[in-house]
Amino acid sequence: MSTKEQRQVASGAGLSKQRVVVEAVRLADSEGVDGLSMRRLAGALGAGAMSLYHYVASKDELLDAMIDIVFEEIELPPEQTDWQSAMRRRAVSAREVLARHPWAIGLMESRTSPGPANLRHHEAVTACLRGAGFPVLMATHANWLIDSLVYGYALQEASLPFDTADEFADMGEDVYLPQLPPGEFPYLNESAAALLAAGYDPAEEFIFGLDLILSALEPLRAST
Predict the structure, then answer these.
(1) Which partner for 50 in 8, 92, 119, 182 could form a disulfide, CB atoms 3.0-4.6 Å apart?
(2) Count of C-beta atoms within a 10 Å radius of residue 52
């Protein structure tokens, strides 16, 4: 190891893998994951880039650990309750967590070396569905369907040009409605006007879709 590399390692004194990964998550939350590099992370930690490799061997290992933190934040389906309520709470929690970490949406199921929280999460979801009476294949169908809603909604929500129902109402009045003259777009104008008048909140679409899926899955529990 060169003298320069020795100085870089020494500058990382006091670091830990947990601190490195938590800082990487913070940077990804504020700046996105695409620009995250070991050099950028080291700068944020006040350490030499070489020192980080004592805690994570590669960028892939760092991403695995970051995703594990995200999974750790998601509430597991609680035991001692009916499967629909348990999966509903888990899905709502996942949506809230992904709203805090939108960079993670496309990475949640892509890791080939999942961490312990990732594995615990998937084990608990599968156990909930199997314990409710879903056969293996139907439990797999149910899991994919629910996660498709969670990840798809989280991705769509992250791209919306507003964050709250009030902001949606303001944009509807000032931006959307003027672009929908009733003579040219009668149905869109009618829908926009009715939704704005009713105080519509787009966030309600997640619960609507989730409850619809859970209700549709209920008759399939005993299927073979």
Answers:
(1) 8
(2) 24
- Angle of CA points 145, 103, 105, to nearest 5°: 5
The whole-model pTM stands at: 0.86
Residue for token digits 């996105």? Answer: 32
Query: Are the CB atoms for 139 and 89 separated by under 8 Å?
Result: no
Give which of 206, 100, 187 is closest to 148, Cα–Cα.
206
Length of the chain: 224
Q: What is the C-alpha to C-alpha distance for residues 70 and 52, in angstroms, rounded to an integer?
A: 21
In sequence order, which residues have a C-beta less than 8 Å from that of residue 105 and are 6 or more positions away? 98, 151, 154, 155, 158
DSSP designation for 36 = -
